[in-house]
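Q: Two folds, back to back.
A: First:
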Amino acid sequence: MRKPVQDYRGFRLSRLREPQFYHLNYLWGWVGYFLLYFLTENLIPRENCTVIHSRLDDLIPFCEYFVIPYVFWYLLIVGSLLYFMFYAPDQFRNLMKYIIVTQVVAMAVYIVFPNCQNLRPETFPRENFCTWILSIIYQFDTSTNVCPSLHVAYSVGIASVWLREKSVHWSVRAAITVVCLLICLSTAFVKQHSIVDAFAAIPVCMLAEAIVFGKWWKKKWKKA
């Protein structure tokens, strides 16, 4: 088993300013996100939201089985951050920067341009484990503040960082990329997002790419 490159056994909150632990400060970004999430979800009335819809949404069938990759998104975020935290602190820093940039931009959009969607089925076409899970998701995750989709933006960021992590086999990186693609697709099939939300996440991701990996792309361009 590969040995971690970062040892946290001596970690204390008082040592966050030390170079070997300084990258953990990026985790404070989650505190800001959850605070803004609570405020935007509870202080912006639904009647003030613009409904996001595309004709393509009507052509995409509801498929509850896509809830599996949709929910796996949460595990992928935690698993990726934990792996990079122990085995690639630089990539941990890059992923957190990517996430923070997309968080800030998305939250700004939600505040300036409150939006929602009305795509969820009133009743499920069938009852099974996947629809049960989806009913729980519908309860705690409202259909407001959906554009741009953070599910998509985070997934693109995770795939981008993993593809640059050369310490793992290419098959692992390829598998994670496929999973991220399925997660992006799942947002439309479980009717949590309009396809517009996914496309709206693309410029957000491009901004995050430029901020986090601008130097990397510049070197690639010069080599080309």
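A: Second:
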Amino acid sequence: MCARRGSPPRLSGAEAERAAAELLQARGHRILERNYKSQVGELDLITMDGDTLCFVEVKARFDHRFGGAAAAVDRRKRGRLVRAAEAFLCQPEQSAFRRSPCRFDVVTATWAEEEGDWTFTHYADAFTVDDAGRRSWL
């Protein structure tokens, strides 16, 4: 994506999630779900990385102010992601995944002024259930 100097192009959530899915697939992930919604929250992507079930949050930001995209996944957001992962695993049709190791990943998209394009960074195992401030059976 190119833009006029000083004006980053808008990156929609859907575009960021599509690019994140492509990045993860290139790294060997198998995409199981996109935009999984439950009553307690949403998961942008659910993938398999080998035998590990990954719940992936995708965040896009124009700059690094206030900690950038990764900082947007704060304790409150992590708690919602954990609850959404629990809801996913509680579905009867997902019983095969209940014994799989699980992790929470974050993929960030940040505008890189120097390159005039978006850069994507994958943070595998970005946080744990304990980091979300709650106890879980995950």
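Q: And?
A: Strands lie at 30-38, 41-49, 52-61, 102-112, 117-127.
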